[in-house]
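Contributing new records

If you add data, match the layout below exactly. Sequence lines come first and carry their own label; structure lines follow with theirs. Keep one chain per record. Anything else will be rejected by the validation script.
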Amino acid sequence: MRFLVMVKGTPQSEAGELPSAGMLAKMGAFNEELVRAGIFISGEGLQPSSKGARMSFAGGKPIVTDGPFAETKELVAGFWLLQAKSKEEIVEWLTRCPFERGEQVEIRRIYELEDFAPVLG
């Protein structure tokens, strides 16, 4: 099973504050553990929403809104794409994550083709 782990935005990430060299080293070591365990597919940090845009599609017409966006708790500051046998395995791995500034993550399972079998027949 694949899971998307979204690291929620913080006031610091939205201000474009980069992590300290020490934190980057800790995160690098944590990512290396994920790679050695064979569950790491991908992971990246994201630039602040001030450098991004949102698109909505109401009435068949795309509407583009440039950032920044007000609610940091609704924003994603980074992500991991991980593969494991269960959500519980992902949770176990993330208990070792070296976050220190009140970061929050959201774990979501990714649909696989076989999940659509009941609809596709």
